[in-house]
Amino acid sequence: MNILGIDTATSILTIALRVDGETVEQKVFRQTRNHDSLLTPTVRDLLTSRGLQVRDLDTVAISIGPGSFTGLRIGLSFVKGLVFGLDVKVVAVPTLEALACAVRNERRASLPFECAIVLPGRRGEVFWGKFKLSDNGVEQVQKTELVPVQDLASQLPETFVIAGEGASELDNARRNYFTLYSIEASAAVVAELGEARARNGEYEDIASLEPFYGKEFLVKDAGGRLPKVLRDASSQLESKD
Q1: List of residues 6+ apart from 181 with CB closer than 8 A
Q2: Which string of DSSP letters, residue by residue, matches 166-195?
């Protein structure tokens, strides 16, 4: 199975190719605000290096949110354009779950434990979810919420493991109270989780799929521009095959 993993939900852009159950390559870009210009050439290069074309993909796994509103829109619009007119399935992977899985992969020696994955929101708020990490995998035990930083900082227990780009906001609210763990988004993890969903037939209706913003969000004037965005992304990649 050929799976392309894409994560544009945070400040880091990461893209990975998974072939027959193994990640064969991953690209990570830490430049902010360049997701849109980097996606097409990076995906093209990843596929070309393995002698693949877009049509050879079985599945595209996309980190669906919550996260950056702009990043999520760019990522999903690109994926819709990528598979436009092709027999390529799409699976959606919750961003917080993917980050929790990345923490588990790097801290296997400490299992089991619970952690909070936290991403920046807006105006003093953060997105967060509570996860139990064990040898059996990752289980979300607290649903994803958008809450004020101070409220979350006051309700989590001392030395609780916090990870994600919003962890520093909690640390500022209650300095030296939590155990902070640095983790970056990983498209390889998104592709791995996406493969499991694909094998279970958990595909998305690409026409109606929307990012999980975590709160109501209106994309103004998108209707007139979106079809062209989809055609452009698909044609640029197909023309290089």
Answers
A1: 103, 107, 115, 161, 162, 163, 167
A2: THHHHHHHSTTSSEEE-----HHHHHHHHH
Phi, psi of 147 (to 5 degrees): -135, 155
Domain spans, the chain: 2-94+186-238, 96-181
**Could you give the CA distance from residue 63 to residue 211 in angstroms, rounded to a whole number?**
9
Q: Does the domain formed by 2-94+186-238 have CATH 3.30.420.40?
A: yes
Say whether pTM exceeds 0.85. yes
Residues 105-164 pLDDT 10s: 999 999 999 999 999 998 889 999 999 999 999 999 999 999 999 999 998 887 789 999
**Is the fold of 2-94+186-238 the same as that of 96-181?**
yes
CA distance 229 to 77: 7
Size of the chain in residues: 241
As assigned by CATH, the class of the 96-181 domain is alpha beta
